[in-house]
Input
Amino acid sequence: MGAVTLQDIRLKEYTLDNLSILKRLREELLSKKPRVCIERARYYTEYLRDMSPDKEPAEIRYANAAKHFLSNKSPLFFDDSLLAGTTTSKPFGAPVYPEWTGMTIWPELDTISTREKNPLMLSKKEAEELNFDINPYWMERNIIEYTRKKHNNPECMRILERIVFFIASKVGCISHTVPDYKVALDKGVEYIIEQAALKEAELKKDENLTEENRQKLEFYRAVQIAMQGVIEYAQNLSKKAAELAAKEHDPFRKENFQKMADVCSRVPAKPARTFREAINSIWIVQVAIHAENINMAMSPGRLDQILYKFYKEDIDKGILTVKEAMELAGCFWLKLNDNTNLVPETAEELWGGAGTVPAVTVGGVDEKGEDAVNDLTYIMLRVTELLKTRDPSLNSRYHYEKNSEEYRDRLAEVIVNTKAVPAIHNDVAVIKVLENQGTKLEHARDYAVIGCVELASAGRSYDASSSIMLNLVSVLELALNNGKRPVTGDEQIGPKTGDPSQFNSFEKFWEAFKNQSEWLIGKAIDLNEYFGHAYQEILPSPLLSAFFEGPMEKGKDLIFGGALYNSSGATHIAFADTVDSLNAIEKAVFIDKKCTFNELSKALKADFEGYEKLHAYLVNKTPKYGTEDPIAKKNSHNLIRFLYDFYQSHTNYRGGKYRPGYWTMTNHAGQGKLSGALPNGRKAYQVFASGITPVSQAANDLSACLKAVGGLESQCIASGEALNLKYPSVEGEEDIKTFGQAVEAYLRYGGLHIQFNIMSYEDLIEARNNPDKYPELLVRVSGYSAYFKDLNEAMKEEIITRTAYNIKTGKAVPFPEKHKSMLAFE
Amino acid sequence: MNENEKLLHAQRKPLIFDIHHFALDDGPGIRSTVFMKGCPLSCLWCHNPESMKSGREIAFYPKLCINCGDCKTVCPEGAISFEHAGRIIRDRCTACGKCAEECPTTALKIVGKHYSVSNLIEILLSDHIFYETSKGGVTFSGGEPTLYMDYVGKVMKGLKANNVHIAIETSGMFNLDEFKTKLLPYINLIYYDIKLYDPRKHEQYTGKSNKQILSNLTDLVKEPDVRIIPRLPLVPKITATTDNLTQIARFLKSAGITTCELLPYNPGGIAKRIAIGKDIHPDIPRTMMGIEEEKKLGEIFARLQN
Output
């Protein structure tokens, strides 16, 4: 389609000074303090309490709850945004989803407003409502307790609650998806209702309904109910906007309210006719989906593609200017920032500072495999470059055979100017990965990014991509200690895979490692399956299902496998630390025979105190992932391959396969703080490396690092990877060119994803020491962006110590001598 | 170089002291630069002093040492002394490398490693995607790569078969006929050092006369398929004098050469000299050349060339 008509793809003439509405809204956003919003919890609880489960099937009951909330949801206009609708009832809200995460703040209701790290304001009155009214209802009805009771507190759940082995965040993965917004734009929500009604009527003709058809009928009924809720919310917005327009004296505001009143009276009920209607329609549907599903990575997908025809038509007709398109896109960007996660204090350690990670994807190729970069792609890049906000997590697709070099270098430039975004994804490799997972070629080409780095055919593939987050170091420690972990003491947790001091070859240890992995992954999968079934039984998603290819045809909710494609994603924490530890064991114990397993074990227990020479040897003389070392290559490849084969041999409750990935959000920092010393020389309670990134300061050669990571078998990384790199500075066109070329080389070697922080060690240390001076400093964590000041100390430390490469030499910049104590090996 | 020395080089397996991947300063695009060990010249200011000797050496970095003493235990020559500041008693050391292998911290390092022709080709080709995306390639540097015409020629041939762009950085001290047969057919770009014009000064500071260097350049310029860029290292008070710049500019002009890169002096070689136990000549500047100074010299030179 390749439709670039802009004279200047940089759109340099547009700045925040002449896009003053964006400037103002941005400033307002950054000054807002997040508040807990209980509106949704209130209305959901109200409906569900009144309607006991035996009176209505779950599908219909939850559709009615969504409708009840959406039709009562306050139509609010907090600012001068060009888009109507708010995720919560607060200008910057953290919505309560008591089905799961909402319960975690119950003990903190008194302190959540005043806690030191990322406080969330909660009024006394609302706290009381949660305490006395809402939470008691959910106490035994939330997913965790429901599952616990049903399966009699199963072992997998007890392991989960240790935190240090794996995390199975079903609630998050329900939302980890890319809905199909095209149906709302091209057909409208009324059309969905009509279709569902027709299907329902058809099924009703059959007097002897099978159980399967009865479920279908319920699903179609539920879709109609939920969609009615969506329309009512839009109508309420329209009415309210009209009221405000009537009262308003300021001419700009008056006109804007009037426009919103008109737009919301039409969309999303009916098809969108203009760019403004289209972008509003998507936003209202996005808000509505959050009525049902938690605000965690609900990703709008390929907006430059979905919206392009509306943009083009309006521009051709002369009813839209580039500037107006930028303002509308900018308002959408800022709207995506209007909510944040409800996180209890303890979890701040693990997730602190994360946004809600709604991923927007731009660029790449179209369904026919042709260049899809268009004017909107560049408009969205420019808006991102100007706004520099935490969300949306902007992901660019780059097809090195189809997209232009100009586009590639523009991506590099935006990264340099924002210091962080967009992330870059490899179209050639990703499309192959998805095809290998059974996605049709044209569907694979239409992939979008979910949340951090996960990949899905947009609106067709339901991938529950954060189902499992498994700590590979916990596996390593179980193998090193015959089924125990130092952090959990003397308890036998995993199977007895043998006392390593009796192993006479590295292969024996690798076997033990694999056995422990299979055991732990098995438990994580058990739990995910339990949760999946629990969702099927008590928490279906009829509303989300309406915006997906598959459910409407099959008459099946997404949670029952209604989507065209299904899978569950499992990601892995501490990949690089684990590979380097395997390397170290192989080299130290079996090749160089520098120590026995017993000695190594003692050194680890002592956190290397008294073992300085062995420690120095492990740090300096054992193979490191991210270099050309053949042992490191072998172990990294074997681990990737082994995990892939094992996961793929499991089928989930929706009939899809499990897919492994390597991205870590902030878990690698949090989990690192809970883990003992490792054979690669990492000291106890230090952070792990992020995503699929080599261990900080262990891979000193940029080209070797890019080759090593890019050379991993991408087919086996079916749920995505995050490679986080850091350049201290990139200056001038020459550097940008080199930047683009290095990225392209990495992608040609096969890497799926790469993202950057453009900051030096010193810059980051300065920002850590003076958080108030750098309130807007944006950093890439491991697949998403965050304001540096919001991160917990462990995560700050991890980002600071990540290897910085000099783009002029391709060599690691030495870590400042006087801060060396921050390094994981010191 | 006398016949004896030449024979010695021919017999010895060529050593490489570094392969710099992702090199941006040694030719167009992203390149891999191979640093050969050994050089016919011995410039006082050499910023790669570890390249001067063709044989293996041991470098010592005291900051990294944890005083474990393993080096002393394994040294078969008794060449390690903890009383000696440089740690290695150089006249006893045979550079066998046992100490560096044993050292847990890399405080002791072996400088110089031999790669078979096929292994080196394989290593260099593993970066081929970097070359392709950036229109880069491979550069042979040193030391003096033309000391090993047979070896380097074979590697170049293997690279050329894979369409790799090849550059060489040379001092110009080589047998021209041999260079033309063994290396030139593969080379796309030559960086050619012209340090001092005055043959006596050249001998004084580099150990050799520049007669061959200048005549080789005059001849090579006539070759049709290769680009030559002369390079002039600016060493304060030695090469960066108005006299020298004038003479070189005049020489280049008469040879029909219009480009010349000036390389500002950096004292990076000094620390390396210390690590391998080499003396530092008092004439060698200890600080970077200032940007102002560099600019001034650049202007003078540009004027002279016009």
In short: Chain B has a mean pLDDT of 93. Chain B has two domains: 3-53+114-305, 57-111. The longest strand of chain B covers residues 16-23. Chain B is about 35% helix and 15% strand.
